[in-house]
Write a structure and sequence with these properties.
The complex is a heterodimer of chains A (121) and B (571). With 121 residues, chain A is of the alpha+beta class. Chain A is built from 2 helices and 7 strands. Chain A has a single domain, classed as Ubiquitin-like (UB roll) (Roll), CATH 3.10.20. Helices cover 19% and strands 32% of the residues of chain A. The model of chain A has no long low-confidence stretch (mean pLDDT 94). Chain B is 33% helix and 18% strand. In chain B, the strands form 5 sheets. In chain B, strands 1, 2, 5, 6, 7, 8 and 15 form a 7-stranded mixed beta sheet that branches. In chain B, strands 14-9-18-19 form a 4-stranded antiparallel beta sheet, with helices on one face. Chain B has a 4-stranded antiparallel beta sheet with strand order 10-13-12-11, covered by helices on one side. Classes of the chains: A alpha+beta (121), B alpha/beta (571).
Chain lengths: 121, 571
């Protein structure tokens, strides 16, 4: 039997995280948690939300989440052949599943709308 | 076009002189020059401003004829660029990059990007493959891209007329009476539909490397700009030319590092490419690499994959790259902290070779532009990797960021000028609004899985080596995936809905995959990054661009001459 990892993901949107979903993914040594989550999305459940831009290069810094209660990047945290608990950051506005609002405040839509309203008096 | 199209309470509308789509080096350069010319600018990115796309992933080289340590001139840089492009460059575009590159690179230096220096204080220039002399500036260690992105981002922040909006996904351009007048999209963060009326639009969305499973750019480089341009009626050229970076990291698994990181190692330390028999092989394929890293990307990719095909590949299916002959002190002097990051991945270069293989890296083809970065549709401009023509059939290493800066600056200036002479047109096409506001039931199709399947089709059948049978099969499989793409995105507009995002991405990727594959099928020869097993030689009859355009719902392909060539059709 091949070795697997179990990813237990806190689910929900807008701060209402009512459930968790568990996914069993194939494990090979050296993989990242993001590798596991990308497998989940393509093969098991595409509704799981995890934002990332670069692929495991750790340059975009978008994939910051909590892995077993510790803040880490999904792209550099190693996948392990056991159950791992994945949760969104606790100190950022929650959007969906593992995605939180990580954009600088002045680069968000709300800021552009507020700036326009102010300019229009 | 419908005026006064449906506006719901959730619809957000902006007006601006210039809309820039994409915030890598090209997009930020365009925003800076348009803003500097007095235009109001919105710079939109589907991810974070200045932190997504390919620029930030750049590891090292930026080619520019500064002559800071070896005498140089733009003519020499141009000669190398045209040579690498295998007769398909548009010289007027390539020369613009070579002639004006120095001013943009020195501007970045003035803005303290941190170009590496020689002991005498001059800007250091590395000798990269395909160049006749040391010509590439860089920021240590492997920090060129992040430093360029951060420096530009800092300047954009100070530009008062520029509004930055991240997590804004543009789905369609608005075309009014044949002129691009804005765009439609949605906010990734909350799902709200957005329309933007703009005097002019600049596409700076980068390339299409996400079409391939193994790639060296970002997940958001799905070819958005190519599809947006196509749907708006613009012409694209050279779509068959996808650059594979020959020595992308393959094994052992490496996290937290860019897969193209071995390029800088080869610039500084040489390194040896070995086959399964631990024998150097690159020169077996007509190259002359003598202890120095000088073989162009298309030729190195060909050599590595030919060895794999001959059964002499490394265990993971590539080649070994060895630095075992380099003393540890030299490794550390050249790459300092990177050596520790490798150790964290269990890699000790003094003890083991690593495995490398070609990886999708850059797109030479793209939107057809002139020297003012005007596309063939009024009001639409394009800059950076999304453009076609300047790199021909194979891009010279180091030209990507230089080009992004030069073309971005011109696109911003041109767009600002056009916007000054034109009014704004409100409204947006109903079909585009219908997509971003669609409310549909639960989706049974896994579009993330479909994207993975498409990536496999492209890697297996439309990769570095191509055949008529393979390309024909690829077109059939692309059509089969397309048949599974529902007419509307799944779900309802909401918070960061990736399943919905996948639908939009797959729609784009299928269009772009078809453009690449059909162009590749029509080019019955091997040239630069396009290698046909069934037509292994370069054929002078094909010194032509393949041009793709949209006619109704179909993509049509024909040929147009290369600038300066008298050839108008394959004999």
């Amino acid at each position: 039997m091949s070795i697997t990892a179990t990813l237990t993901v806190r689910r929900g949107e807008g701060g209402q995280m009512t459930t968790t979903s568990s996914y069993e993914v194939p494990y090979t040594p050296g993989q990242s948690v993001l590798d596991g989550l990308r497998y989940v999305r393509a093969h098991l459940d595409p509704t799981v939300a995890i934002r990332h831009s670069c692929l495991s290069a750790n340059t975009c810094k978008e994939c910051m989440i909590q892995v077993d209660g510790k803040v880490d990047y999904a792209c550099t945290a190693r996948l392990e052949p056991r159950e791992m608990l994945l949760e969104p950051l606790g100190n950022k506005a929650h959007l969906r599943d593992l995605v939180t609002e990580v954009a600088p405040p002045d680069e968000r839509l709300a800021h552009a709308l507020a700036a326009r309203a102010k300019a229009e008096g | 076009m419908e005026k006064g199209a449906r506006v719901s309470q959730d619809l957000v509308h902006f007006e601006t002189d210039v809309l820039v789509i994409g915030s890598g080096a090209a997009g930020m350069a365009a925003a800076l020059s348009a803003g500097g010319a007095g235009a109001s600018v919105i710079i939109a990115d589907r991810s974070l401003i200045g932190r997504s796309g390919a620029t930030i992933m750049a590891q090292m080289t930026v080619a520019v004829a500064l002559g800071s340590q070896t005498p140089d001139a733009s003519e020499f840089h141009l000669a190398d660029t045209l040579k690498a492009g295998r007769d398909l460059c548009e010289p007027s575009l390539s020369s613009l990059v070579c002639e004006e590159g120095p001013q943009d690179i020195l501007k970045l230096d003035e803005w303290r990007v941190g170009w590496a220096r020689n002991e005498d204080g001059s800007i250091r220039q590395a000798h990269a493959p395909g160049h006749d002399r040391p010509r590439c500036v860089y920021v240590d260690f492997l920090s060129t891209g992040p430093a360029v992105a951060k420096t530009l981002r800092g300047r954009v922040l100070r530009e008062k007329g520029v509004t930055r909006i991240g997590d804004l996904y543009i789905t369609d351009l608005t075309v009014t009476d044949g002129v691009v007048t804005g765009a439609v999209g949605f906010s990734m963060a909350d799902g709200r539909a957005i329309t933007i009326a703009a005097g002019a639009v600049v596409l700076a969305t980068g390339g299409l490397t996400r079409l391939y499973g193994r790639n060296s750019a970002s997940a958001n480089m799905a070819g958005d700009g190519f599809a947006l341009a196509l749907r708006a009626g613009a012409e694209l050229i050279d779509m068959e030319f996808v650059q594979f970076f020959p020595i992308g990291h393959l094994a052992p698994r490496l996290v937290g590092m860019d897969p193209i990181m071995w390029d800088p190692f080869r610039y500084k330390l040489g390194g040896k490419l070995l086959n399964a028999e631990f024998r150097e092989f690159v020169n077996d394929y007509g190259n002359e690499e003598e202890g120095r890293y000088n073989v162009t990307r298309d030729r190195a990719t060909f050599a590595i994959l030919s060895e794999v095909k001959a059964g002499r590949g490394s265990p993971a299916g590539g080649a070994y790259l060895s630095f075992q002959h380099i003393p540890e002190a030299d490794l550390r002097a050249a790459f300092g902290p990177v050596i520790d990051r490798l150790a964290a991945n269990g890699i000790d270069l003094t003890q083991m070779p690593i495995e490398v293989a070609p990886i999708a890296h850059y797109h030479m083809g793209g939107v057809r532009v002139n020297r003012a970065m005007e596309t063939t549709v009024p009001g639409l401009y394009a800059a950076g990797e999304v453009n076609g023509g300047s790199n021909g059939a194979n891009r010279l290493s180091g030209n990507a960021i230089t080009e992004a800066l030069v073309f971005g600056r011109h696109a911003g200036e041109s767009a600002a000028r056009f916007a000054r002479g034109t009014g704004r047109t409100a409204g947006a096409p109903q079909a585009a609004l219908d997509l971003v506001t669609a409310t549909t039931g639960v989706e049974t199709e896994n579009y993330a899985g479909d994207i993975e399947e498409l990536q496999k089709v492209m890697a297996d059948l439309v990769g570095p080596f191509r055949t008529e049978a393979g390309l024909t099969e690829a077109l059939a499989r692309i059509a089969a995936i397309k048949a599974r793409l529902g007419a509307l995105p799944p779900g309802v507009p909401g918070l960061y809905d990736m399943a919905r995002l996948d639908w939009f991405d797959l729609r784009t990727m299928l269009e772009v995959a078809e453009m690449v594959t059909r162009s590749a099928l029509a080019r019955k020869e091997s040239r630069g990054a396009h290698q046909r097993d069934d037509f292994p030689l370069m054929d002078p009859a094909y010194v032509l661009h393949h041009r793709v355009r949209r006619a109704g719902d179909a993509i049509v392909l024909d040929r147009v001459p290369v600038e300066g060539s008298t050839l108008v059709e394959v004999a």
